[in-house]
Design a protein that fits this description.
- It is a single chain.
- With 340 residues, this protein is α/β, with parallel strands linked by helices.
- Helices cover 44% and strands 13% of the residues.
- It has an eight-stranded parallel β-barrel with strand order 1-2-3-4-5-6-7-8, surrounded by five helices.
- Helix 3 links the parallel strand 2 and strand 3.
- The radius of gyration is 20 Å and the shape is globular.
- The structure holds flavin mononucleotide.
- Flavin mononucleotide binds next to strand 2 and helix 10.
């Protein structure tokens, strides 16, 4: 299999950005990222969105905790006040995050009422000011994750203007979720499926802005497709739901197929590696479910998937990890039987 060469000269984080796992609220917390990291050493991982105000006003620094093993890891911020974002970005940098990403794609009512997320697509000047302020206050990469437009905006018209503003502010990397967000009438969930995907406009933007590192996001459900898109000239691909729901299918071959590394890890390898993390988490007073809830899909599409799901779901109230050990034994049995 040919390995795809990056489309740009790159520093390390840019190399990693060739493949990333999307920021997902309530999903990509530190335990989920640690789990994903066991499959892939190279990919870039994103936090859930954290409101800048929660850090600056609420001083909720615990939201920033993570394990060293998660690097390279990007902190996604939500906000629209340049001063507050600059301070939040600097706090993020002091915690050792590798990148600060601004959310310009979330359509939820809560986020809209705070005048940030996707609604900022209407105000590229303000987004530029936010990015500039964050860049001035940090020495790490500042990036933006946006949509192709919102409501009745014409992406052909507004997207170049938007990208112009952010690249003038010094941003060198952007992730485009290749569909519009409809702010009234669609739920956040519907906004990930109903507005049609438009990959072509993302490729057009790459042609117009050859110096901008552009990652495409939305609806990619296989590494083959990711490779195809990179092969067509986009700099990176970001996958969200499929990586979460089918981590083995999506993540176990990324290092090999996208980054040209030798290693790849099976679902069993990762289940074994997670045992020590899980034990350590519980020894510190954590609940096993906080970790294992992200691992339900580990054996998706493989023998023993159902039994694994059942053990992990049934063990969600447990305080020790016996159910995890039992789940591993049951899945091993099931694999042995199907191989016999
Ligand atoms: C449960 C969930 C939570 C999400 N939370 C965020 C978020 O915090 N920030 C963000 O930029 N996008 C968020 N998204 C959107 C994803 O990052 C991604 O753009 C979207 O799911 C499309 O990619 P996909 O088709 O590969 O899933 C979320 C998506 C899901 C499914």
């Amino acid at each position: 299999m040919t390995i795809i060469e990056s489309n740009k000269n790159d520093n390390n984080i840019e190399t990693s950005a060739r493949f990333s796992v999307a920021p997902m609220m309530d999903w990509t917390d530190r335990h989920c990222r640690y789990f994903h990291r066991q499959f892939t050493k190279k990919s870039l991982l994103y936090t859930e969105m954290i409101a800048a105000a929660a850090l600056v006003q609420g001083k909720a620094y615990h939201l920033l905790d993570y394990s060293r093993e998660e690097h390279p890891v990007a902190l996604q911020l939500g906000g629209s006040d340049p001063i507050q974002l600059a301070e939040a970005a600097s706090i993020g940098e002091s915690y050792g995050y590798d990148e600060i990403n601004l959310n310009v794609g979330c359509p939820s009512d809560r986020v809209q009422s705070g005048s940030f997320g996707a609604v900022l697509m209407k105000n590229p000047r303000l987004v530029g000011a936010c990015c500039e302020a964050m860049k001035k206050n940090t020495s790490i990469d500042v990036t933006v994750k946006c949509r192709i437009g919102i409501d009745d905006q014409d992406p052909e018209e507004i997207l170049p203007e938007f990208l112009n503003h952010i690249s003038n502010s010094g941003v060198r990397r952007v992730i485009i979720h290749a569909r519009k967000a409809i702010l009234k009438g669609l739920s956040p969930k519907e906004n990930r499926d109903v507005p049609p995907l438009d990959y072509e406009i993302v490729f057009k933007m790459k042609e117009k802005f050859p110096n901008l590192h552009i990652s495409l996001n939305g609806g990619v459900t296989s590494i083959d497709t990711a490779r195809e898109l990179i092969g067509r000239g986009i700099d990176g691909v970001m996958i969200g739901r499929s990586a979460y729901q089918q981590p083995t299918q999506i993540l176990s071959n990324v290092d090999k197929d996208v980054f040209g590394e030798k290693s790849n890890r099976s679902a069993f390898d990762v289940a074994e590696l997670m045992r020590a993390y899980l034990k350590q988490h519980c020894d510190k007073g954590g609940k096993p479910h906080q970790v294992t809830r992200h691992m339900i899909g580990l054996f998706h599409g493989l023998p023993g998937a159902k039994i694994w799901r059942q053990y992990l779901s049934n063990g969600s109230g447990d305080i020790n990890i016996d159910f995890y050990e039992e789940a591993l034994v049951a899945v091993t049995d099931s694999n042995n039987k199907s191989a016999a």
